[in-house]
Amino acid sequence: MARYERPDWVTKYLANPAVSLLTRLGISLRGSRLLAVRGRTSGEWRQTPVNPLTLAGQRYLVAPRGTTQWVRNLRVSGVGVLRIGRTDERFRAVEVPDEEKPPILCAYLQHWKSETGKFFAVSSPDAPDDELRRIAPDHPVFRITTMES
User: Fold this and answer.
1) 66 φψ region: left (φ > 0), alpha (ψ -120 to 50), beta (else)
2) 102 and 48 Cβ atoms separated by less than 8 Å
3) Does residue 146 contact residue 91 with C-beta atoms inside 8 Å?
4) Residue 116 and residue 109: Cα distance in Å, rounded?
């Protein structure tokens, strides 16, 4: 069964709406963006705050909570939009295989541990590769590339 950790009340009704509002106003918290992806069954646009990561010239979206709705939608569509203020960046997404995830997860944890570290079952942000390989299947990762307008 795919791992998924539901947001608690504070996250769902206070934190995510606050981050979403600030991001829509053009204020990014440490690089946060609004991810927009079409629903896999409804076709309607769905939005959620995310923390994109840049590592070695590549950009990634990491799912700290596991196989969320945005992960499922992105797997089906393969495309999405990152938003901040009035700027939309359309992108293509390719899911990263588990064996390639350890350095990405390590970098993500080092940058975003204060916000998302509790969702990763590792000893520290600098966890050894064997720990990162163990948790890799629980955290979908997508490599994203900007699409030309």
Assistant:
1) left
2) no
3) yes
4) 8
Residue 148 clears pLDDT 90, i.e. is over it? no
Q: Which domains does the chain have, with CATH numbers?
A: 9-146 (2.30.110.10)
Stated pTM of the model: 0.93
The H helix count followed by the E strand count for the chain is 5, 7
Query: Cα torsion at 12, 37, 139, 54 (round to 10°)?
Result: -100
Q: Give Rg (Cα) of the chain.
A: 15
Measure the CA–CA gap between 76 and 70, rounded to whole angstroms: 10
What residues form DSSP beta bridges with 95?
A: 142
In whole angstroms, give the CA distance from residue 61 to residue 144. Answer: 7
Largest CA distance in the chain: 42
- What pLDDT, on a 0 to 100 scale, did the predictor assign at position 82? 98
On the question of pLDDT at 80 being above 70, the answer is yes
What's the average model confidence in pLDDT over 15-23?
Answer: 93
pLDDT in tens, 95-122: 999 999 999 999 999 998 888 888 999 8
